[in-house]
Amino acid sequence: MKNKVQGLQERCWHSMMRCYRRWPRCFGLVAILGVLWGLGGAACVGGVAQESVAGDAAEWGAEAGAEQQAWKAKELTAWEGSDLDAGIPEGYVWGEAGGGFAQGVVSFSPTGGVSYGQEDFPNKLLGPPQGSGLGKGSLDVVSLGCGGEIILEFSDPMIGDGPGPDFIVFENAFSPNGVGSFAEPAEVSVSVDGKNWRVFPCDPQSASWPYAQCAGVRPVFSSPENRISPYDPQVSGGDVYDLRDLGVSVARFVRIRDRSRALPDAARWCQAHNAGFDLDAISVIWPYRPKP
What we know:
Blueprint: H1 5-20, H2 27-38, H3 46-63, H4 65-79, E1 92-94, E2 100-101, E3 104-109, E4 142-143, E5 149-153, E6 158-160, E7 167-170, E8 186-191, E9 198-200, H5 233-236, E10 239-241, E11 250-251, E12 253-258, H6 264-267, E13 278-279, E14 281-284, E15 287-290
Antiparallel strand pairs: 1-15, 2-14, 3-5, 4-13, 5-12, 6-11, 6-15, 7-10, 7-14, 8-9, 8-12
């Protein structure tokens, strides 16, 4: 986690200006927010913030559109003529796209005395993301600590390999100015049995933003309050993963290992009680469900 005051102030200022351009309906609101700004506060009115999150989700999705569309085109081409039922595990069937979230935590190994989010552990990790938008990371998270690790289980649904991305990992990265993000990256691995792991390579130290295949990089927009889908990478935010990249057809376990020490801006917080990767949720885009 990190000090978000400056980021929140900048975010609030952008919301004020967006509102001000709709003069005169928002004049009173802008005046009030202007006073709060002068006091150094980071306050935004819910209606403006909600609209801002939705707008930023669309803008962020548009900026990433070329990458996502290229990915989608590649995957759909690769799937042409393929048997989508070939990799279904015994006792399971395909479920509807947008299948659910993690069902349990198998192991949790935080480091450095990290304690943030453990008061409601593991419940806060087993539902949808609580995204706060481009300039504000969610507080509904569990911190791993620098070098910490967590393994989550997916049984109903399991994660299947469908066309395009198969699951999304949500952290609380934020981007006050809309360029890049403050990232506390992590390596993501998948397994069928919880023993043999296939790793999405994450090397933030030798790569530039957005640190390919690392989690904890992209801000999160989806939340139950704004109804932005947690299964649509075009608007949800978060970091997407495709089992096909690893030659895997199904995953029952997802392991996340913090790599924050690889980035100086993240490593400087390693002594904090909320250091390292802050897990919010994991959504399953392509689910395998137990047979009825």
